[in-house]
Model the fold of this input.
Amino acid sequence: MDISTPKTKIPGIFNYCDRWCERCQMTSRCEIFIPDEKEMNTEESLAVVHENFSKTMSMLVNWAKKNNVPLEDLQKEDPAWAARREYNKLHARTNITSKLALDYRKKAADIRAKYAKELNVFKTNLENRAELGLKGDSEIVREVHHAMETIMWYETQIPVKITMAYMSFGQLENETSEIQSHYNGVAKVALLCIEKCFPAWEILIKHFPEMEDDCWNCLVLLDRARKLLLADFPNAPKFIRPGFDD
Done:
């Protein structure tokens, strides 16, 4: 099938996205997207996503060392690893990775509630200054707003995608292509959602020093979930998402 023109739909493209249509550049190729009057923003390139993630990951490692917080290593392929992977496959909703995602979702919501006053005051003060024509303040308002939007959106997406990956792993393990198996595609989306959250939390840390420890602890949960996903779905990063990666 010819997919060279922007108007040609790509079958199944919606199976491997993060459901954030307003930030997606592939809506014209999607069979289930219903356009509205909003202008679609261009999706950040994967290179930028990975670069921002790597930068924040380095900062997390430094914070963890300074505060004696252990960061989990990738699991090795030994009998214990295989047994855990099999357990996770059979307990998609209750395994440790899914639980970590739910713990992250709760902690992220708790942080927003805990610092709601500070966030609102910060936003109001900057908006008032921006009205005076101070460009820098307008950019900070947009930066913080973008970060909060990102955190809130993926807060629900991450647990869903992780559970779906394990459920698909248990149901479709006999697919002919190991790398292009559906569970690897869903796991890859979960990993990308996690990566996009890292720089969003770093932005909040930059502008709200009082939130630093809470934010880093949120990222510790995400890092553990990410590493366990990579251990259980080692081929997920190699999955080619139709339209996005090819």
The two ends are 14 Å apart (CA to CA). The helical segments are 46-66, 79-90, 96-114, 116-130, 135-171, 182-207, 212-232. The CA atoms of residues 5 and 29 lie 9 Å apart. Residues 1-6, 36-44 have pLDDT under 50 and may be disordered.
